[in-house]
Amino acid sequence: MLYELIGIVRPSGNLGEVKEIVLTAGQLILQQNGVIRGLSNWGVFSLPKAVSVHQMRHQKGHYFAMRFDASVGTQEAVRNMLRLDPRMIRHASVKLGDGKLGTMSRFGGVDWSR
Fold it and tell me: Going from the N-terminus, what domains does the chain have, and what CATH number goes with each?
């Protein structure tokens, strides 16, 4: 299945934290025979409203997006790993398509230019 993961990391001013989180998630996907289709760093933006997570209040967050093919179990493992990481503010995964080759071919390439 093709999934898109959008994550928000606490904005520490250190891009290394974001890279570590993405690297860990990517390694987990690859270890379980998944394929990473695209990765994008969106940068730091204000959150729509202040969020309290892990006993901290956040006004801004560092956004990233990742598209990957993986099994349902792999996707759940990635979600659980991100949920337990204290550097993460929020994350969401969305399944793209219904997994059938006919509908997946209509998606075309991943356009990260927007």
Answer: 2-95 (3.30.70.60)
